[in-house]
Amino acid sequence: MTEHASYTASELLAVMAARLLKDGQTVFAGVGVPLLAATLAQRLHAPTLTILFEGGVIGPFIVPGELPPSTNEQRCTRRANMVLPITDVLLLLQRGYVDVGFMGGAQIDRFGNLNSSFIGDPRSPTIRLPGTGGGNDIASLAQMIVAMKHEKRRFVPKVDFITSPGFIEGHKTRAERGLISGGMWRVVTDLALMGFDQTTREMTVLALHPGVSAEQVQDATGFDLHIDQRVERTAPPHEDELAALRKLDPERVYTA
Q1: To bridge 18 with a disulfide, which of 41, 85, 95, 233 should be the other Cys (CB 3.0-4.6 Å)?
Q2: Residues of the chain whose pLDDT is less than 70?
Q3: What total of structural domains would you count in the chain?
Q4: Sign of the CA dihedral running 144, 145, 146, 150
Q5: Catalytic residue set
Q6: Is 256 part of a structural domain of the chain?
C-alpha cells in the first residue's frame, strides 16, 4: 500500500511509530520519521517524553514546520534542557538512562540488523550511505524501534554490513557478542508492525495496517516472515493524529 484516500504511506508510518512511544520515556531519536514520530507522540499522548539527539541535545522543543534535517543542526537546540558534548550523551546511553532508541536504515534483515553504511561489495560498493554516527552505540545499548518503508530491497536475508546490531545471527548470539542489554523491539513500516520471536529472534508480523494483506507484506520482504492467520490489525490514523502531524510537517518534507 502506498497511499490511502485520507493519508499517505509516510503519514501512516509516522502515526504508527508515534503510538509505540509512552509518556515519561527518554528516546534517542534520529532525524526524519523517528523525530517526527517522537514529536507527534509528545503533542498527543506523551507530554513528558524526552528526546535526545546524537549531537548532544537533551529535551529540545521542535517548532512545527521547522523540523531539523540533521541532529547537529542549530534548530535541534531550541529551548533544550541541556546541550552536552556527544560523548556525555552517549555516556547517558551507556549508563542505562535511555529507554528507547529510534532510527531508520537502508537495509534490515530477519534478525533486525541494520545497515546504513554501504550497499554492495565493501571493496567497491555500489552505494555509499551516511554511516553509523551514533547508530551502533544506540542499537548496542537500547531497546530499539526501527521505522522504514517496506520494500524487498530494504528487507533482505542478510544486510551487506551490520552498522547497528540487532540480534546478530539469532538465538543468543547478541549476548554472546557481549551485547547484554537492549535489542530490537519493534519494526514499523507502511505495511505492518513487526516484532521478534523470543527464542529464535527472527522477525515476525504482529499486526497488519488497514487494507494490507499478509501476501503483500511477504511479497515486499526478501526473507520468510512468520504471519499468523489470525494476525491483528492496526487502527487507521485518527483525524487528530493526522492534524497534529500535518501541523508539524506542513510542507510534507517527510510525509509526502
Answers
A1: 41
A2: 1-5
A3: 1
A4: positive
A5: 54
A6: no
